[in-house]
Design the sequence.
């Protein structure tokens, strides 16, 4: 099966499997049936079997899944054993929170540079990094070759800077700019994060519950 | 059709429709065909027709969608015209960023209280709010009756506090605690936000692209 034939919706569910397996490992669980895993994750057992079969299927009839083996395999599929380098653009409240709150290394990333164009922020420390002037991005990328950019900047700035960053070797965008960055470049991956969408969904679900 | 028979995956797509329609409105677009909207949103036209039909269908054969009418209707379905009150627990980096970065009011919420148990944070200002001692939550909830809690606290604290908050009248949780809060209470809605899952997905997609 061609690697990219696995649907994006299956890939999006993998980190969740990974989290639940990590918790099972922490409680000393050695093996688990698809039925039990399904109950824990609020999925159907057939969904779980279907998802994991996309990658060759790890379960054994009558045994279930070996938790440690499945955890390691999903870690590998997710590429968490790699250490890609990432830069973050926009060191406002959100950028600072992302850079300090996220455990990048356990997710296959090292944050190597934080940039802003606000003179009041340039030179400030964010964790172990010093906020650099956005004007230095070109030189920095040529020297360090980061492959991922985290965009915590406004929409217009994100649109403006995306093509330039691709020219500098960026291949992945983690985009918080309140805007669906849709790049028509081959070989570029974008994950748009819309916190507002999640909050609106909560609002909608509460309304529907109350109206029912 | 019973209101809750609309699937959660359709509801989750509504905020994205809302964002795209808002942009179309801003550019003065009066009407749009499902085909053109599909191209903009990178969905299929049939997906769009299917999604919007869940709510009665707003399009007209040969005309497409009236942008303003569809935008208003989706705003209403999302309940963005309401103003629910929300409290935020955990005023660390992430909590501060969420409370200052989010435009709550355009999403149907008013943030009325921010709480932490760290004496160094209590009394600090976050936007227009003063961080209160977590011990005051009971009294605060009884006085102000917030319906939503935003959890920017660690997993163990989230598990511990959730039931108590339900007892205090909280009906919706926006949960950033690195943990799938799965509450078995009728009439309670939880939106778990896992920023790490999104970053892991980006990592996985980059790997698969490179390996292909």
Sequence:
């Amino acid at each position: 099966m061609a690697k990219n034939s696995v649907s994006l919706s299956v890939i999006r569910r993998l980190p969740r499997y990974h989290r639940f397996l990590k918790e099972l490992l922490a409680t000393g669980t050695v093996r688990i049936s698809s039925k039990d895993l399904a109950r824990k994750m609020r999925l159907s057992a057939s969904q779980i079997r279907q998802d994991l079969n996309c990658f060759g299927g790890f379960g054994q009839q009558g045994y279930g899944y070996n938790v440690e083996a499945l955890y390691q395999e999903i870690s590998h599929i997710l590429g968490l054993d790699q250490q890609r380098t990432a830069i973050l653009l926009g060191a406002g409240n959100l950028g600072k929170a992302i850079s300090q709150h996220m455990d990048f290394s356990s997710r296959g990333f090292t944050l190597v540079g934080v940039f802003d164009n606000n003179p009041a922020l340039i030179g400030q420390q964010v964790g172990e990094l010093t906020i650099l002037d956005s004007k230095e991005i070109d030189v920095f990328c040529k020297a360090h070759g980061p492959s991922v950019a985290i965009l915590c900047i406004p929409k217009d700035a994100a649109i403006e800077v995306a093509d330039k960053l691709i020219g500098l070797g960026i291949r992945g965008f983690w985009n918080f700019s309140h805007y669906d960055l849709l790049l028509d470049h081959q070989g570029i991956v974008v994950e748009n994060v819309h916190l507002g969408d999640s909050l609106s969904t909560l609002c909608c679900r509460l309304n529907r519950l109350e109206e029912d």
